[in-house]
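Dear colleague,

Following up on yesterday's call, I've attached the two folding results inline so they're easy to grep. Please treat them as preliminary; we haven't cross-checked anything against experimental data yet. The first protein's sequence and structure tokens come first.
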Amino acid sequence: MAHTYFMVLRRKLASVIAGGPAIRRFVRGHLRPLFIGALAFLMVVVAPAGAQAPGAPDYSQDELDQLLAPIALYPDQLLAQTLMAATYPLEVVEAARFVQQNPSLRGDALDQALADKNWDPSVQSLAAYPQVLTMMNDKLEWTQRLGDAFLADQARVMDTVQSLRQKAQAAGNLQSTPQLSVTTQDDDIVIDTPQPDAVYVPVYDPTVIYGPWWAPAYPPWFWCPPLIYGYPYCPEFTVGIVFGAPWPIWFNHWGWAHPHWHGHSIAIDGRNNRFWNDPRHPRPPPGGDWQHSPPHRRGVAYPNAPTRDRFTRIDPNAVRSRQDFRGYERIQRPSAPNAARQVAPPVGSTVARPAPLPQVGAPPFDPTLSRQQTQTNAQRGAQSRQSIPSASAPAGHAPFGSVPGGRAPVGRAPGPAPGPSPRGGKFGR
């Protein structure tokens, strides 16, 4: 039985081996083109779905929700100042340290001290709300990411704020209170302060206020404010909004920034604002929109190349100064026809090179004329030695090559051609 089984297995293996070339020809002739076509189809159809287009956003919607959840329920004007100031993270750090070192400054005394600071008006304005600056300083990485997202895609950031407010309202956690005014205008939720002389900064747990959090991979952070800001308790894992001590409204810190939710912009009114009237800051036109100021960025890198190109300009004077520092010579017109000099071409330029000059020298060696060439070179050497003026010889000796009469010969007739080598050599045979 075992013998029969091995015989059958042997016949099947032999048939497979015998049909191997036919199978390979079939694969090359039929299956290979089909495989290449299927691969090309996958590259054309499937690859773009996973590839990111050049203009694709750098932040997913879940990331934007995570960034904006802690401040989306701020009053509109305070939220606008926070978004603008987040684009200048280094100045935020300086302002936070300033208010911590000067906790007693209020009102006109604070404005007088801020006048000496070369900060963006949005950062100067937040100095009246040290609680916000302290939070931004404690969460500095979040502050920079928030500002980067606002610069990269301002429209999506403002739409995300409205989306989060709608979620909080749908969950029953956003309504008007004595500290907060919540209204709806053209399908946009507007949050303002109901009191004309005081601002309350809301604090809430973003993982609860909007309902069950929908992006577990991007949970929002919660910042518990210190007790010095007047909050009765830390509302962690608590449904609702908690308010601390009110902050007085000063005209230099309030009323100059108004979000336009449908237009995805922030209108600036700096007519009566001390910070915007500073000559160091470009004064916006009445009703003009906020524009980012790159000098106040203080060298902090932008989030991506398109954002960097929008706000970074190339200074040609700086480029020339770097070329001088690196040893490049500037191209100048010569003062005379013979005063031209060769200078290094600018980096990246293409300069036509002149044709090479013909080289003057001995002709190339030709093995077929070696004997004649050797004789000619020997004659030239003899003539060259004879043309050199001879030095005065010692007394009793005639100069080398002189003739009787004291006159040196101008030239000498060529000597006889060298004879064959005594021992027989290459030229003597």
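Below is the second protein, in the same order (sequence, then structure):
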Amino acid sequence: MYFRDIANVHTNGVDFLHILEVMGVEARIYQYYRGSHFLYMLSNSFIAVDFETATFSKMACQIGVTIVENGVIKSTVVDYIQPPENLYEMGCIKVHHITPEQTINAPTFNKIWPYYKELFENYPVVAHNATFDESVLRTNLDYYGIPHNNIAKFICTYQIYSLSLDKLCWAFDLHDDQHHDAGFDSLRCAQFYKFYLEGVKPDLSRLANYIPEEERHSKIVKHDPLKGDVLHKDLTNADPNNPFYNKKVVITGVFDIDRNELAQKLKSFGADIDTGISKRTNFVFVGRDAGPAKLAKLQSLIAEGYPIRQLNQDDVTQILNGNFSMI
């Protein structure tokens, strides 16, 4: 993140965007208001954030933050948050499927905020439909009496593209199978904003074949459980240097590749394929229509500090192409 020499100046009615244009500064300049100051930034370091809420009064139940440094996505952090009295409204549960059982042991917002405060105060913050996410943040900070004067106005990728998150995924040929998971949505938002900074435009012609999210997810998908030989670990011909070698791996949900075929491929890498998530699990592959019980168990163990790595369809595609850099 960097600032131009005229950053943090009093505006006094002067059009500093015009001054920057005269100076030959690139077109993508962002304007933030703090007190009586405007900050003009050119930055490819930022955080993308998403909140899921337990109530229509915007009490948060999950936060996802994706950190981007110098144009490179570094990590995505996701945490459950226990809303006040752990109360939920059914309309919210129907959107994200997070339930009170999943947050009963989660920290409240005021307990988790110290871990995120520095990120929000020191990076430009991006969100898809930023008006909502910024309002969620400030509502929860106000509820616990936490000041938020040092948090700048969010940048909105919805305002940039005028497309919903699932449609934008479709236009960029990215899957949206985990839409309404805060970590997943923050990652997609970070990718959208990176594309914008890099001048990569969505292919709107793809929307001709767009199927509404509710229609795609309206049917219950059933799949046979993994069983038989694939569940027996075999290190005979596996490479000890492979990141899956002798690691416990669980697969849940549906992928572009058949689940059994994926399991066999991972087994050939030396993976110990398992059907249930436990404290000993190393990797969980999460696909479309993943089992809610498995997802709840996964997030619970991660919240307890167990270093379980969650992988998705994008990771599967890379792994099948011999790329293990994401691990």
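For the second protein, one point worth flagging: The CA atoms of residues 52 and 319 lie 30 Å apart.

Best wishes,
A.L.
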